Every structure is written in structure tokens, then in C-alpha cells.
TrEMBL record:
Name of the protein this chain belongs to: Methane monooxygenase
CDD domains, sorted: AAMH_B (cd01058)
An example molecular function term from Gene Ontology annotations: oxidoreductase activity, acting on paired donors, with incorporation or reduction of molecular oxygen, NAD(P)H as one donor, and incorporation of one atom of oxygen
NCBIfam families attached to this UniProt entry: MethMoxAlphaMmoY (NF045802)
Length: 392
């Protein structure tokens, strides 16, 4: 039996079909919008390159507030959970695409900044090594504090970097995803800079260990970072809500514990022990902290906290999350006070009054930049008194 194939004309090859299509086309254009990305609402007067290249770059269904696509996802997780969904966070928004990075960073300028940072780091290290500046560092500070405790702080930053994995995956907007990924990468850059400093010292100082074995042992088993380790583990591995991950990390833990360790311990004390190397790297970390503060402030205060419909509810959730994570951060700081027994005492610098003044600065900054923005009340004096109980 042979197969008979119909040879009739179809589609645009059929004159009758072409005629019917032409008659159906209206006289006026179907779409009067001629501008690229006309559907994106700019933060300023006109769209920036950052907004054009970032906003709505990935599909977002219209049941996610601010989304423009329609339909459901063809691929789902086990149990039927969609690829993205509103149930991944307790916070609510009328537009998850509202967030903007104040620095307007996307992939290309971010990579350009990193390349520039490496070039001036290379020039600094060349000058530092050629002049033998390492000879001025106090041996105890170099061999114990920088090796063990700065090295252990590397794992703090690396753990927080990993916490951004699920947050960048589960968040509900393109600008959010770009910002979360970048502030996560900044954390792993902090970890890499710490190990870079240790590797650099190993090349200059005979016997200085390049291996991370001792810092890892201090982080996983030591008492000084015990509270920090447990807090980072819970942020990374025990928190489902991607907004809670970001809030606990960047609005509570890092502005308090991270700022005290970086700014008030390593950066402030380094020069007293003849160390001009560590402040170079800490200052770069502080730049990342400043950029992150701009990003997360826009996320939580400008977008979610001031949301026309859900702002009050969101701020109540932020205060509840602060109640949850502040005691853990205080415990981390109390444990860290034990580090002052490991270094030579300098009156007015490492003494109790100086440490208390440093804590005052950290909590004053946190109150102004974070707590006041969500009307969070706390007893600063009582908290600092609790932390200082760890100072032997």
C-alpha cells in the first residue's frame, strides 16, 4: 500500500491564506511603544544602562508581584514546589522588581572593579616586600594573631558567602538576584584576601605557615569563634527564608560582629603592633561593607519597609528577626573578647575602657544605620556589659 501525500499549498504559500491575513491586519500599529524596555519603571528620570541590562532579564510570572510573564513553570521541585514562588519568604511586596543597587553595578563594571583592585594590590605588595616592611610586625601579633585568628576569620567570611547561594537562587527579582550574588562574591573575596595575606607572609617570613590547617582548627574547635561559628552555621544551613538570611547576615550579624572584628580589632590595633599590611586588606573589606550597606538598605528600608501595602507588616517581621539574631551576635562578640588575652597589653588600646569604647562605636553605628530604620529598641549599655563579661 502506498502513502498518499497531499500537495496542497499552505500558510504563506497559499494566495487565499495570504489575502485573509492581510485583511485581518489593522490599519494602526498593534503596539505603539517604540522604546526599548518601555515596561521597566526607572528609579530616576530615565532608564540607566544597569536597569536596561538587569531588569526582567529572566522570566517572572505575573503571580509574583511585579512580574510580567504569564503561565506556570514547566519544571518543579519534588513535591510540586515551583521554580520560584512567594512562599520562599515571609516578607511581602507589591513589586519584587523595585530594588536598585545604588552603585548601579552589573556584571561588566563589577569585574572591572575587581581587576582594578587586583592591580593596585599587586603594586602595594611589590612595594611592601621590596622595602622589608614585614620586619616591623610584632612576632606575637604576626605568628599567633594573624596566622590563627585572622586566618580563622577567613572561614567566617566564607561561610557567609555560602549563605548567599540559596538567597540568590530563591529571590523573586532580577535586580535582587544581581545584588545578592555580588554581595555574596564580596564575602568570598574577603576570605581570599585573608588567605592572600597569609600566603604573602609565608613568602617573606621563614616558617610562617601558608596552610589553613591551624586557622581551620581554631574556627571549628576554638573558643574565641565558637559563638560566631554557630551563628554562621545557622544563617547558612538552618534558615530557609532568603530575606531572613540577608537580614540576619547583613543587618544584624555583620554590622555588629563583623564590624568589631574587622574595624575595631584588626584595623585599629594593627598599627600598634607594627603591622601596616593588614589594614590595606581590611580597608578593601570595609569598602565592600559600605557597598553592601547601600544595597541592603535599599532592599529592606526603601522597598520592603516603605512598601505602600505591606510596609508595616514587613518592619514587624524585621524586628522579630532582629530579636532572634541579636542575642546570637552578642554571644559571638562575648566569645571573641577572649582574643585580648592572646596579645600584649597596650594601655588605652587593648584595655577594658578602650574595648568598651570600640563596642560603643559599633553599636552607635548599628543603631543609626539599621535599628532606628525599623524602630527597633535595645538596651545598648546592658548588651555591652554582657559582651564585656567575656573580657578576662
Amino acid at each position: 500500500m502506498s502513502v498518499q501525500v497531499q500537495q496542497g499549498k499552505r500558510g504563506l504559500t497559499d494566495p487565499e491564506m495570504v489575502k485573509e491575513i492581510l485583511e485581518a491586519i489593522p490599519d494602526q500599529p498593534l503596539d505603539t511603544q517604540r522604546k526599548m524596555n518601555y515596561f521597566v519603571k526607572p528609579r530616576g528620570r530615565r532608564l540607566t544602562e544597569y536597569e536596561v541590562l538587569t531588569c526582567y532579564a529572566q522570566p517572572t510570572p505575573d503571580w509574583i508581584p511585579g512580574g510580567l510573564d504569564w503561565g506556570d513553570w514547566t519544571q518543579k521541585f519534588h513535591g510540586g514546589r515551583p521554580s520560584w514562588g512567594n512562599e520562599t519568604t515571609e516578607l511581602h511586596s507589591t513589586d519584587w522588581h523595585k530594588h536598585r543597587d545604588p552603585a548601579k553595578r552589573w556584571h561588566a563594571p563589577y569585574v572591572k572593579d575587581k581587576a582594578e583592585e587586583w592591580r593596585y594590590t599587586d603594586r602595594f605588595l611589590l612595594a611592601y616586600s621590596s622595602e622589608g616592611q614585614v620586619r616591623s610586625i610584632d612576632p606575637i601579633w604576626r605568628d599567633e594573631v594573624l596566622n590563627d585568628y585572622l586566618g580563622a576569620f577567613c572561614f567566617n567570611e566564607y561561610g557567609l558567602f555560602n549563605a548567599h547561594s540559596s538567597a540568590s537562587r530563591d529571590c523573586l527579582g532580577d535586580t535582587l538576584r544581581m545584588s545578592i550574588a555580588m554581595i555574596g562574591f564580596d564575602k568570598v573575596d574577603n576570605a581570599q584576601m585573608i588567605q592572600l595575606e597569609r600566603t604573602f607572609l609565608a613568602k617573606l617570613v621563614p616558617g610562617f605557615p601558608e596552610s589553613t590547617d591551624e586557622p581551620k582548627r581554631e574556627w571549628t574547635q576554638g573558643a574565641i569563634y565558637k559563638g560566631a561559628r554557630e551563628t554562621v552555621q545557622d544563617i547558612w544551613q538552618a534558615t530557609y527564608d532568603w530575606n531572613e538570611i540577608l537580614w540576619s547576615c547583613h543587618m544584624v550579624y555583620d554590622p555588629l560582629f563583623g564590624q568589631f572584628v574587622r574595624r575595631e580589632f584588626f584595623q585599629r590595633l594593627s598599627s600598634y603592633y607594627g603591622d601596616t599590611l593588614t589594614p590595606f586588606f581590611i580597608n578593601q573589606m570595609q569598602l565592600y561593607f559600605s557597598q553592601t550597606k547601600g544595597i541592603t538598605s535599599d532592599m529592606f528600608f526603601e522597598c520592603l519597609g516603605d512598601d505602600a501595602e505591606f510596609g508595616d507588616y514587613n518592619r514587624r517581621m524585621m524586628r522579630a528577626w532582629t530579636d532572634k539574631w541579636l542575642p546570637r551576635t552578642v554571644q559571638a562578640l562575648q566569645d571573641f573578647m577572649g582574643i585580648f588575652t592572646k596579645i600584649p597589653t597596650i594601655p588605652g588600646v587593648t584595655s577594658k575602657d578602650a574595648v568598651e569604647a570600640a563596642l560603643e562605636r559599633v553599636f552607635d553605628d548599628w543603631k543609626l544605620d539599621y535599628a532606628d530604620k525599623v524602630s527597633y529598641k535595645f538596651d545598648k549599655a546592658a548588651i555591652i556589659k554582657t559582651i564585656l563579661q567575656g573580657l578576662k
